Input
Amino acid sequence: AVQLSESLTRWSMALPGPHQDRFVICSGGGPGIMEAANLGAHNAGGKSVGLGISLPFEQGVNDYVTENLKFEFHYFFVRKYWFVLLAKALVAFPGGFGTFDELFETLTLIQTKKVEKMPPIVLFGSEFWNEVLNFDALVEWGTISPEDVDLFKIVDSVEEAQEHIVEKLTERFLH
Output
C-alpha cells in the first residue's frame, strides 16, 4: 500500500499543467492499510485525504494525512457518500467487514450506473480475494451478470496495479 500510494502520488504530481493536484490519495484515515496509503503519499511529498469515522476503539485520523485534509465523520453513510462521490479509483487490500462494505457498495453503484464515470477498481492480492470471494459462483448462481466480473481487476504487484489505474485514469479523466 505504501509503495503503490507513493508511486501513484509521484505520477499525479508529474502530470503537466493543472492536473498535478487532480488525483490525491484518500483513505479512511485509520491505522493499518489506510495509514500505509497516507504514508506513501507523504513519502512522495504529496497530499492525502483522510476520511475518518468516530469509533470507540480508534484514536482519530492517522498522522500522515495532510493536516487540512483530515475529516472525521459520525455516520458511515455520510463518509461513504464522500468516498464514492469523489473517488476516481478504488484499491482494496485484504480486509474485513469495512473493506467489503466499501467494495460492494461501490460495485453496486457502478453496476446500477449511479456513478457517472466508472472508477477502476483494483483488488490487491489474488490469494486473498480468490479465497474469500468466489465471483464465478455468483455468476453461476445468476446473482451477478458475467460482465460484472469486468468491473474490477485482481492484481498481485504494485506495477500491475499502477499500470491499470494510470491507464484507466488517463482514459477517463485526462482526455
Summary: The mean pLDDT is 93. Strands lie at 25-27, 48-53, 70-73, 90-92, 121-124, 153-155.
